[in-house]
Write a structure and sequence with these properties.
Helix content: 10-25%
Structural class: alpha/beta
Radius of gyration: 15 Å
Number of strands: 8
Strand content: 35-45%
Distance between the termini: 5 Å
Shape: globular
Length: 145
Amino acid sequence: MRAVVQRVTSASVEVSGEVVGSIGRGLCVLVGVTNGDNLVAADKLASKLWNLRIFEDDRGLMNRSAAELGLPILVVSQFTLYADTSRGRRPSFVAAAAPEIAEPLVTRLVESLRSLGADVATGRFRAEMAVALVNDGPVTLVVEI
């Protein structure tokens, strides 16, 4: 699994003009699933995201996690994270898992985050989503499990 993790002051996702998920200060996570990913990977990614120390402490060092601060997470499925652009001008999505495989793993990631104590908002799987965010820092990381 691959995730683009953005520390945000706010983030939301709309489907057909309706806000389906939004958070204030926290993490906006775009998640891609590849062939071969499994429930163990989803659980490991959840733990990594929840405990990732990318928020400042009292000394201004990135030393605090969303878990420590009780911050929410917005999870948005993003199959295009597995685009292969190494050849030609049209990306190949062969490495992205089929929706039937990816959707249960994204659901498991969300469930696992919630079981760890996270307040999680989500996008809508297989929908045309408009994601809006205000990046804090800016802090943007790529996390792979």
